């Protein structure tokens, strides 16, 4: 037996080999905020990395549980983190392929007897060697429906989680409270999930940073006043149901780019660099959401805008614009005054 007591290993070199810094940096670059999530991923990476080093010293191999639970609202980065996790696990040698397969109840559960097993098996075979992310996993469990076959899919997942845990990682994702009920319904499932990670909602500052990043990636930029209106848009949008964090911000950014294109095509005879990249207040304030917002925010109408027109509007917004000229004027006045 080789004595490894005095053996020394260069950790910096091993980190390069396993691409630890590269993968964690990619996660940090892709996602704004989520510090608690990034910390948990770093901790999981650390124990896996140390396990590899221990093996090099001749110590026994310890295979830690890797199945996970991601809970939180939509658009909080769960799929992105799952993808980076699959990459990390492949680099460390815990997965052979390191790909990500996303699935939902419809991909696993059939409507008729005898069809659920082949559907579930097909998804599992496709995910083998990587990570299987099951979104809204609690929909697999429907206790009040005797003819539902979700329990059959769950039983198959349990078998694979135990028997194939060296080459397949399952991640169950969904809203926090329904996921708690889901795990209580099946203690065997809960006991096999080693890491429960909660994804917090993005705050206002993080959402505007996400928007800026998305605009920058598409080579657009918000003007100073457009940024102020964007923040107001976020305040309104977050009060409505089905707000999906970064996913909703992505949709807002896309619509603003569409409005810029429409505006430039309609009003500009000569294209300039600024006309093609500058997102102005008009590109945001034309949203119907601002009409709803006027019911939420107390607006003060002006008696005479002719003297102070530049104060109430942003240069570039045409006062003759119709049919929502008053909405533009009064909404913009509200933004400036508040």
From TrEMBL:
<dbReference type="InterPro" id="IPR050773">
    <property type="entry name" value="CbxX/CfxQ_RuBisCO_ESX"/>
</dbReference>
<dbReference type="GO" id="GO:0016887">
    <property type="term" value="F:ATP hydrolysis activity"/>
</dbReference>
<dbReference type="Pfam" id="PF17866">
    <property type="entry name" value="AAA_lid_6"/>
</dbReference>
<dbReference type="GO" id="GO:0005524">
    <property type="term" value="F:ATP binding"/>
</dbReference>
<feature type="domain" description="AAA+ ATPase">
    <location>
        <begin position="64"/>
        <end position="203"/>
    </location>
</feature>
<dbReference type="InterPro" id="IPR041627">
    <property type="entry name" value="AAA_lid_6"/>
</dbReference>
<keyword id="KW-0067">ATP-binding</keyword>
<protein>
    <submittedName>
        <fullName>Rubisco expression protein</fullName>
    </submittedName>
</protein>
<dbReference type="InterPro" id="IPR003959">
    <property type="entry name" value="ATPase_AAA_core"/>
</dbReference>
<keyword id="KW-0934">Plastid</keyword>
<dbReference type="InterPro" id="IPR003593">
    <property type="entry name" value="AAA+_ATPase"/>
</dbReference>
<dbReference type="InterPro" id="IPR000470">
    <property type="entry name" value="CbxX/CfqX_mono"/>
</dbReference>
<keyword id="KW-0547">Nucleotide-binding</keyword>
<comment type="similarity">
    <text>Belongs to the CbxX/CfxQ family.</text>
</comment>
<dbReference type="InterPro" id="IPR000641">
    <property type="entry name" value="CbxX/CfxQ"/>
</dbReference>
<dbReference type="Pfam" id="PF00004">
    <property type="entry name" value="AAA"/>
</dbReference>
<dbReference type="InterPro" id="IPR027417">
    <property type="entry name" value="P-loop_NTPase"/>
</dbReference>
């Amino acid at each position: 037996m080789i004595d490894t007591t005095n053996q020394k290993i260069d950790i910096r070199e091993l980190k390069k080999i396993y691409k630890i810094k590269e993968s964690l940096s990619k996660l940090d670059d892709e996602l704004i905020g989520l510090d608690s999530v990034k910390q948990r991923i770093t901790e999981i990476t650390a124990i896996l990395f140390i396990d590899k080093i221990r093996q090099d010293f001749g110590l026994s191999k310890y295979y830690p549980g890797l199945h996970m639970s991601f809970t939180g609202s939509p658009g909080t980065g769960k799929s992105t983190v799952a993808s980076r996790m699959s990459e990390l696990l492949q680099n460390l040698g815990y997965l052979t392929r390191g790909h990500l397969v996303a699935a939902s109840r419809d991909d696993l559960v059939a409507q008729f007897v005898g069809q659920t097993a082949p559907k579930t098996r097909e998804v599992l075979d496709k995910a083998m060697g990587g990570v299987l992310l099951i979104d809204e996993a609690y929909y697999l469990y429907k206790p009040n429906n005797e003819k539902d076959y979700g329990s059959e899919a769950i039983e198959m997942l349990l078998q694979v989680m135990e028997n194939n845990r060296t080459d397949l990682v399952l991640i169950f994702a969904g809203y926090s409270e329904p996921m708690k009920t889901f795990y209580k319904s099946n203690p065997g499932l809960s006991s096999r999930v080693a890491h429960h990670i909660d994804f917090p909602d993005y705050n206002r500052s993080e959402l505007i940073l996400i928007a800026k990043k998305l605009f920058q990636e598409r080579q657009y930029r918000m003007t100073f006043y457009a940024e102020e209106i964007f923040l107001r848009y976020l305040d309104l949008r977050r009060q409505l149901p089905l707000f999906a964090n970064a996913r909703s911000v992505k949709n807002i950014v896309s619509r603003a780019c569409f409005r810029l294109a429409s505006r430039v095509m309609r009003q500009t005879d000569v294209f300039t660099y600024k006309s093609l990249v500058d997102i102005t207040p008009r590109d945001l304030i034309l949203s119907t959401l601002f009409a709803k917002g006027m019911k939420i925010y107390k607006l003060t109408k002006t008696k005479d805008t002719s003297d102070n027109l530049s104060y109430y509007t942003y240069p570039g917004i045409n006062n003759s614009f119709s049919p929502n000229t008053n909405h533009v004027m009064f909404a913009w006045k509200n933004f400036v005054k508040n």
